[in-house]
């Protein structure tokens, strides 16, 4: 069964502190992993995906297949990082050419305090 | 590019009425996905459509829900005879032939 678990519903840190948002997954095969972010009153947007291995807004995430984890990290949190963060997985591209459905975790609300 | 458009943004229906939610994908995108988010939950996949075809409807409830993506015009998610449990945020996403799905702002359905 495909499943994404984000164990922390709420996470609060102070500005400048490191932050780690946890994500574990269950998938039979080789999934694609994503982090989506939703800032207040804005639409859901892609933050990063594991296949691109890039750092966006100072965030990184490493896929650990042994631990089936894809934790999101940032060494120094900023107040503007406060948002809802969703971890998601997808299978490989569908035969029709688009991406397969995304399976989302329940999300973690990150609050960065001044 | 205006991005994925959804309308209405808010929809109030009485129990038993029909709800029609519209989604216009980004220009050049031919794949549309619908997700539902219940309070305190993550987004749950409902259906994946390509022009005039339903590709994957494994997340659609068996009754009262239907979706279409005609050759011309937006994708429509239709909920017949709505019940209180249908109250949720409904998100549409679109993609081209890549992995990235771009999301719309969502339609918040309230059933009274």
Number of strands of chain A: 11
Percent helix range of chain A: under 10%
Sequence of secondary-structure elements of chain A:
EEEEEEEEEEE
Distance between the termini of chain B: 36 Å
Instruction: Give the % helix of chain B.
Output: under 10%
Spans of at least 5 consecutive residues with low confidence of chain A: none
Oligomer, anyone?
heterodimer
Shape of chain A: globular
Q: What is the number of E strands of chain B?
A: 11
Count every helix of chain A, treating DSSP H or I runs of 4 or more residues as helices.
Answer: 0
The residue ranges of chain B in which pLDDT falls below 50 over 5 or more consecutive positions are none
Radius of gyration of chain B: 13 Å
Percentage beta strand of chain A: 35-45%
Number of alpha- plus pi-helical segments of chain B:
0
Q: Label the structural class of chain A.
A: mainly beta
Derived from helix and strand composition plus strand pairing, the structural class of chain B reads mainly beta
Strand content of chain B: over 45%
Largest interface by residue count?
A-B, 26 and 33 residues
Description:
- The complex is a heterodimer of chains A (114) and B (112).
- The mean pLDDT of chain A is 90.
- In chain A, strands 2, 5, 6, 9, 10 and 11 form a six-stranded mixed β-sheet that branches.
- Chain A has strands at residues 3-5, 10-14, 19-21, 24-26, 32-38, 45-49, 60-61, 72-74, 83-90, 102-104, 108-113.
- Chain A contains no helices and eleven strands.
- Chain B has 112 residues and is an all-beta fold.
- Chain B is built from no helices and eleven strands.
- In chain B, strands 2, 4, 5, 6, 9, 10 and 11 form a seven-stranded mixed β-sheet that branches. Chain B has a four-stranded antiparallel β-sheet with strand order 1-3-8-7, with no helix packed on it.
- The radius of gyration of chain B is 13 Å and the shape is globular.
- The A-B interface holds A 4, 6, 32, 36, 43-46, 49, 51, 86, 90, 93-94, 96-107 and B 3-4, 30-31, 33, 35, 40-45, 48, 50, 53, 55-56, 58-59, 91, 93, 95-106.
């Amino acid at each position: 069964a495909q499943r994404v678990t984000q164990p922390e519903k709420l996470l609060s840190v102070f500005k400048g502190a490191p932050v780690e948002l946890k994500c574990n997954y269950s998938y039979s095969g080789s999934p694609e992993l994503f982090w989506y972010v939703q800032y207040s009153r804005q639409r859901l947007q892609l933050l990063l995906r594991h296949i691109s291995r890039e750092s966006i807004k100072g965030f990184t995430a490493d896929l650990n297949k042994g631990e089936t984890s894809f934790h999101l990290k940032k060494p120094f949190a900023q107040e503007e990082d406060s948002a809802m963060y969703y971890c998601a997985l997808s299978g490989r591209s569908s035969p029709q050419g688009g991406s397969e459905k995304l399976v989302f975790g329940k999300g973690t609300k990150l609050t960065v305090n001044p | 590019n205006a991005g994925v458009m959804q309308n209405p943004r808010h929809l109030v229906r009485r129990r038993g009425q029909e709800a029609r939610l519209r989604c216009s994908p980004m220009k050049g995108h031919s794949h549309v996905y619908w997700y539902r988010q219940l309070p305190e939950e993550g987004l749950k996949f409902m259906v994946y459509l390509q022009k005039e075809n339903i590709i994957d409807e494994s997340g659609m409830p068996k009754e009262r829900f239907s979706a279409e993506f005609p050759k011309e015009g937006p994708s429509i998610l239709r909920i017949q005879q709505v019940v209180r449990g249908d109250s949720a945020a409904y998100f549409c996403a679109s993609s081209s032939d890549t992995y990235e799905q771009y999301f719309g702002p969502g339609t918040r359905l309230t059933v009274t």
